[in-house]
Amino acid sequence: MSSGDLKLYYFNLAARGELTRLILAAAGRSYDDIRYSFEQWPEYKPKMILGQCPVLELADGTQIPQSLSIARYVAREANMAGADNLESAKVDAVVETQRDINEIFYSKVFFEKDETKKAEQLKTFLEETLVKHVENLGKLKKAYSKDERYFVGNQLSWADLFVYQSIQSLVQALPEVKGKFGDQFKPLIDAVHANENLKKYLDSRPKTDF
Ligand SMILES: N[C@@H](CCC(=O)N[C@@H](CS)C(=O)NCC(=O)O)C(=O)O
């Protein structure tokens, strides 16, 4: 398939668009990775079905908005969404658990403008929210994993890539988090870095602020 049959529209950022880029990279699926700056966005916004991005556009012009819907769609196409309905539900549970923490982090810490509030919320985030979250991910992994590298069953799923990407973004924003949770994500991170397709993408993707 030519890359032109699939287009991903998103800012030149990791953030909400990066999970889909990672899934497509892992699948070795070519696509047009359409990236733009905030200044260029007004040109694209009216062309997006909900006036927001990321958006995945298929060959017939169908647009899929909502980052996790896009990611789930491309993951299913790539057989990275669980081997059956039950595995898909387990994968979704890991994804939703990760989404919970990302939302708290971005709303209470990353985008908080009031510096006093931000400092207080960061403390709570590091001392309570993140600790609980890592415990929750550990519970899901214990229940669903059959391979220490992956959260569900014995193969890489989009949930693994979501957790991987979220950890990378968190560490980029808050370097003090690195090393805070020992080695529990190491097998996953090593597996991602050992994957030829992912390594190629990770080594060549643009460096972005977040
Ligand atoms: N729930 C949506 C949120 C989409 C969203 O808020 N996108 C932002 C960028 S991360 C956006 O399009 N901002 C520009 C605008 O709304 O004009 C998703 O996960 O895709």
Main β-sheet description: 4 strands, mixed
Tally of individual helices: 8
The order of strands across the largest sheet is 2-1-3-4
Shape designation: globular
Q: What Rg, in angstroms, do the CA atoms define?
A: 17 Å
Order of helices and strands: EHEHEEHHHHHH
CATH architecture of the largest domain: Up-down Bundle
CATH T-level topology of the largest domain = Glutathione S-transferase Yfyf (Class Pi), Chain A, domain 2
Q: Quick one: CATH class of the largest domain?
A: Mainly Alpha
Q: What is the SS-derived class?
A: alpha+beta
Termini, distance in Å?
31 Å
Low-confidence spans: none
What value does the average pLDDT take?
96
User: Which bin fits the share of residues in helices?
Assistant: 40-55%
Q: Tell me what portion of residues adopts beta-strand conformation.
A: 5-15%
The oligomeric state is single chain
Tally of structural domains: 2
Number of strands: 4
Bound molecules: glutathione
What is the topological layout?
Blueprint: E1 6-11, H1 18-27, E2 32-36, H2 41-44, E3 55-58, E4 63-65, H3 67-77, H4 85-110, H5 115-144, H6 158-173, H7 186-194, H8 196-204
Parallel strand pairs: 1-2
Antiparallel strand pairs: 1-3, 3-4
Helix pairs in contact: 1-3, 1-6, 1-8, 4-5, 4-6
The chain binds glutathione.
Q: Your description of this structure?
A:
This protein has 210 residues and is α+β, with helices and mostly antiparallel strands. It folds into two domains: 3-79 and 198-204, Glutaredoxin (3-Layer(aba) Sandwich), CATH 3.40.30; 85-194, Glutathione S-transferase Yfyf (Class Pi), Chain A, domain 2 (Up-down Bundle), CATH 1.20.1050. Helix content is 55%, strand content 9%. It is built from eight helices and four strands. The protein has helices at residues 18-27, 41-44, 67-77, 85-110, 115-144, 158-173, 186-194, 196-204, and strands at 6-11, 32-36, 55-58, 63-65. A four-stranded mixed beta sheet has the order 2-1-3-4. A hairpin with a 4-residue loop joins strand 3 (55-58) and strand 4 (63-65). The chain is globular. The model has no long low-confidence stretch (mean pLDDT 96). The protein binds glutathione.
